[in-house]
Amino acid sequence: MNFKKWFILAVLFLFQGISAQIKDPVKFKYNINDLGNNQYEAVLTATIEKNWHIYSQDLPEDSGIPTEMKLSSKDGIDLIGKVVEVGKKYEEFSEAFGAQIVYYSNSVLFKQKFKLKNGAKPANVTAEITYQTCDDRVCLAPNTLEFEQKVTPTAASSAESTPEEVVVETSELATSDSLAIVGNTETATGPPLAQKQEGLKVASIDFANPQTDCGITQEKNSENFWTYLLLGFFGGLIALLTPCVFPMIPLTVSFFTKGSKDKAKGKRDAIVYGFFILLIFVLLSVPFHIIDGIAGNIFNQISTSVWLNVTFFIIFLFFAGSFFGYYDITLPSSIANKSSKAEDAGGIIGIFFMALTLVIVSFSCTGPILGSLLGSAVTGSANVPMLLTYALAGFGLSWAIVFGLLALFPQALQSLPKSGGWMNTVKVVLGFIELGLALKFLSKADLVSKTFFLKRELFIIIWILIAIGLVLYLFGKIRFPHDDKKAKISTTRKIFGVLGIGFVIYLIQGLFPAERPTLQHLSGILPPINVSYLHKEGDGILGMHPSHDYFEAIEIAKKENKPLLIDFTGYGCENCRKMEEFVWSEPDILPILQNEVVLASLYIDDKEPLPESEQTSIDMGNGQKKKIKTIGDKWSLFQQINFNNNSQPHYVLVTPEGEVINTPISGYMPKEDFKAFLECGIAHFKKNKK
Q: What is the pTM of this model?
């Protein structure tokens, strides 16, 4: 049975079980405008559903799938200039691709001007567009659509005139087999499904009725606000241990508990004081919400700026110098003086300004920590204002809790350590941490600019040197300006020094080749694994070499009597790369992929052409037709036909007989979900295998 008939039968199967799982978040409208003087403008208008986007035609190589518009006519046309994109363009740095990606949301127009070679005769003008649609979890299979319209020149078109839309006729685009597909309400015609060739095994696939349901439910990932709340909280606790803040704790608490004749009122005032500290830190995030409301994509744009990341790198170095004690970072003294005078107002207002004064005078220690939170949020997420609000709320909450609890239980003050040199040690340690974080921003600038100077191994070496410096400091081998030169090295410092040595040993493993990516706990900080002196083309996926053909893989599964894991993926799929690097590489996942299943990675954006005898097209109605020209087109349609899904990554476990074992899953997900999916399916297969 030839390839074209195979697709006829496959489309019949699609119509028998189609559901809403196949996503189509982009709608195109095709118009041709008459510009006069035998000039025309073909316009493809894309309307994109909320939370989805399509890539621009201007994408770097080896990243996403760029949108491409082509114009042609059998009757002859001459193109004028290049395709022009009209819409709000978004830019974002992709960690997975190590490159800047450009995309459009909501809507975008693709325009191409042309002339008719024979200006007096009508012509059928075909517009072909290839594009890929993505959201924050999945990317859909690249799609190629064709629109054909008949242009009939009018008298006005041969002379200068006001641009107007040409009256066009949509021609019939049915294929020789009269195929119908999604969007056409009529049932496809063709041979009955029972006539399918036995060797294909497609008929056995029933995604809607898997052999077992593992009870795995997938929810859409959202920003991890609580992570930033905890980061802010711990950052606040660390700030409390610095010389700018710690000595003020007993003084402030004593002011409320001993400075008031009414002890109950004093405790209430202390709690109000803590609340105002929390409020002030939360209010610090308000300007970012205002900026985001005025220019919603500004943080996304600046986070991918080379100069912004270089600036953050320099700022963090400056912060580190302050923590080392070479200079202090303070706000103008006039601000603190005005706030301090306002405390005389008394009552609630006076307490508010006491809290504000504390925040201001402690800035030399808290500023670098707050700057670290700001830098992390601005360059790490599209939802900067909310992340900052949670981070600052966590920071203020830690202070509010400490001051509030100590006011309620003042006897706890006796258990606090006395102020001393250990506070400067905390600052210096924070300085080394600032140095390490500074390198992250330099790395991002390097990746965005595509210089790729700061390779993964070089980054690790610099971090090793910083960690060695920290260890030497903790053991007293090097000192900074505010350190007591005669102070003894405490047991606590020695313990942290030993931990530092362990961290150095941990980092060293990242310098050597390994079967799977190392230093997983630093995956969000280190350069991507492909920006490495060790990375070579043809290394495979984590040392594995999966099949790229379903029918070849199913034969291997039969021979080895193992379940087949179908991985619908794409070369330009960012979430697919994240799954491979951060989930597949886990020590409790990789052995399962290597030993328990046969892996078939089907690339839906593989641009290798199919043999001409296997190339075809399918009528989609409304003047559109879908071409099946490449291997990627073949597997994309295969996914839609058999699994009613067109998103990537998409994972399906099937038996060697081609029967779906458990409910397929899609998108980037936590390791636990992917492991549960694999283990449940494999256990069911082993229990029932023939």
A: 0.52
Q: Determine the 3-state secondary structure of 238 from DSSP.
A: helix
Residue 279's SS3 state is helix
The pairing of strands 598-603 and 564-569 is parallel
Dist CA 213 CA 206 (whole Å): 13
Amino acid identity at 507: L
Terminal-to-terminal C-alpha distance of the chain: 29
- For the record, the structure tokens of 189 come out as 């015609």
171 near 122, Cβ under 8 Å? no
Q: Which residue has the higher pLDDT, 175 or 523?
A: 523
Contacts of 556 (CB under 8 A, 6+ apart): 547, 564, 598
Q: Which residues contact 98 (CB under 8 A, 6 or more apart)?
A: 447, 452, 527, 528, 530, 531
- At 619, list the tokens: 């009528």
Residue 601: strand pairing partners: 567
* Highest mean pLDDT pick, 221-230, 640-649, 672-681: 672-681
Cα(92)–Cα(570) distance, integer angstroms: 19
* 660-687 pLDDT per residue, tens: 898 889 888 888 889 999 999 999 898 8
pLDDT at 4: 43
Give the separation between CA 311 and CA 326, rounded to whole angstroms: 20
Please determine, for residue 173, whether its predicted confidence score (pLDDT) is greater than 50.
Answer: no
